[in-house]
Amino acid sequence: MDIEGMGEAMVAQLVEHGLVRRVDHIYRLRQQDLEGLERMGKKSVANLLRAIESSKSQPFWRLLFGLGILHVGATAARELAEYFGNLDALQKLL
Hints:
- The radius of gyration is 15 Å and the shape is elongated.
- The chain has six helices and no strands.
């Protein structure tokens, strides 16, 4: 998903504080959610929220790859994205 500032330590904090339980919860984060976290001043919060927002414009294959699905590397993610076109079409298989 290529979100600058969303490393393992940040994800661990978000999970620990109950702010994120699933990947889609990242896109619901608000400024007030992040301000109380360790090493998150106003500028860091603004930068992370900007990075989260900009990640929404990544190609579909990057989302698939970023989910860390077993046996789905970059090449498979590209092929799946090309074949299905969008997440709704892919979810119809499930």
